[in-house]
Amino acid sequence: MKAAVLYQLGINPVYGDFPDPVPAGEDQILIHVKATAVKNIDKSRASGVHYTSYKSFPAVVGFDGVGLLADGTKVYAQGITGMIAEQAIIPKNNYITLPENIDLTMAAALPNAVLGAAMALKNRANIKTGDVVLINGATGITGQIAVQIAKHYGASKVFVTGRNIEALQKLKSLGAEKEIISLVQEDEEIIKAIQDIHHQHPINIVLDYLWGHPMELILKSLQGHSVDSSNTSVKIVTVGAMAGESIKLESGTLRSAAIEILGSGLGSLSENDIRHFNTRVLPEMFQLAADGKLTMEIHEEKIEDIEAVWNKDFNGKRLVILID
Description:
By secondary structure, this protein is α/β, with parallel strands linked by helices. 32% of the residues lie in helices and 23% in strands.
């Protein structure tokens, strides 16, 4: 079969021939892969920095994808073998059947972004109807999805921050408020903008993809805000650290405001959380996408071009590899 083959850590996978995968037992089945997204975890495993990096070579890359079972059923699954290939092995009883009318490219692009948005909002922040959400660093792929999911879960208002003004403007069409917060402003302007929002529409949830200095500014903005019946606390849920892995946090900040700081990632989610994600959350999001109610920007490339496009930046679009 044809596949994206990695010959050593730290180099790009290449398009080439690889032996057809063979299921090892009755609990494994073949999938004919049609599309798979290239995500940070895929790149990290191939570069050797992830704890699940490849140990033997050559190896087929690709963590998950969508395709057809032997009977033609459209499914999403995580692969036992690499998924950027014409065929892969998946668990027999651990896949999600896709809506018949869903675009397979969209289905391949969604899961990782949904994990980074829906689980943070629902399982960690316990979002409720009417909540006001601030998404810090919303211009990325996951941020785009988070805006839409927050509205789907009942957020009354979704405010967004980011450095890319054009991308921030686009988020308005996905449900974000018109008062966007540019992170290219002076610190004092950013703090005042958040304080003004928090005064008029008390923030319940901060969904954070940046950490670092932008989070320090948000904490300063929330400092000293008194608790009232409409806003018992602010839950800050950090999902990423694109602006830095550490922050300066003074004790007085936490003592002067009702703030809870949480993290959302595989290590913070229980087995029940993951089961809920696979059985309820992700199927729901696939159906929303099939109904045209959930969207994201995607850049498509053919598997033949995997080496050239592997490390390219497509300006906030998810790279999806198509396989004939």
